[in-house]
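Example record

One chain of 376 residues, shown exactly as stored in the release files.
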Amino acid sequence: MTMKILYLSLSYVPSRRASSIQVMRTCSAYAQRGHDITLVAKRYDEPAARGGSIHEFYGVAPTFRIDLAPRPPYRGGGVVYAAAIGRRVLSASGRVDLVYCRDLVGAAIAARLGMPVVLESHGVPETTWQRRLWRHAVRARSFVGLVVVSNALHRELERLQLLPSNGRVVIARNATEPFSGSEPRPTTSSPPRIGYIGNLYENRGLEIIVELARRVPHCQFELVGGSEHDLTRWRALRLPPNVILRGFQPPSKLHEIYRSLDVLLMPYPRDGIRGPTGGADSSKWCSPIKMFEYMASGVPLVASDLPVLQEVLTNGENALIVPATDVEAWRAAIERLLHDPVLRVALAGKALSDVRAQFTPEARASRVFDGLGLDG
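Predicted structure tokens for this chain:
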């Protein structure tokens, strides 16, 4: 059955933020199931996206519509965007079959109007008013179900008594498509190239990478990503000469970069992980897109020992897991991967097969639609 779905996001589009990548891939996967999707997002002017379409920037097919609403950067801009969301929900009432939300305000408005609502959560509502809106949405008679991105987040919402009245919850982690030509390779570059791909926010464990570069001078460490502000901050530091800041690359170009690297690092700290606007610490329940892209690349990865990451990663099977702050353990893991081609291929191959089996956008869409009975 084809449904008309209004997808309400909080993402800036087009932008460098991981949330916008996840939203675009989700809409693409839902459209591939034959549904009529309209994505509502915050309008943004990303210089790297100029000269092409938004779909091309993200590397997804133009199979769904994008409706960009204003979100002014000044104080009160969030209210302007919430009002725009409200108008779109009101206009869609009676015209769509489902309102799929990563926007809590939109979910509450749609629930108030008696529209079928799915809420996807990547974190816990922090403030009193957010929890009030949350409870209103998930207890509404028209509420279809809740999608969460980790077992840890499900447990936390249960502890806070924020699960839906109807009991419908689906755990659907983030996802990515395997890159073309991503079969693992036993050989390494000369010099070996160690990579980190993602944002350069504070408290992402990047200090570990800088220290590793000092301890492993025969390797080149490449940091790919970052806003101009963050790049300026890092360039002002006295970085070792074997640390390369490659800057932001469009999502559609990342597969080429992944294939040029020999080891990937995911040095998340044990606490204090926050997004570009701050907000709650997500280290207990996050489901980083970076992790799934790393797994899909065919390049072996080393990750810090966050319990939530180990819902997906298993030490010695599809990754090497090391204590988050133990620089010597990180160094030993890198050296082990560089000198053991059998291990390199085994870890990268298992990670790739895990993505193909469980963590593609299509597999995620099936988990959501089947788990909530949406196709029926």
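Notes: The mean pLDDT is 93.
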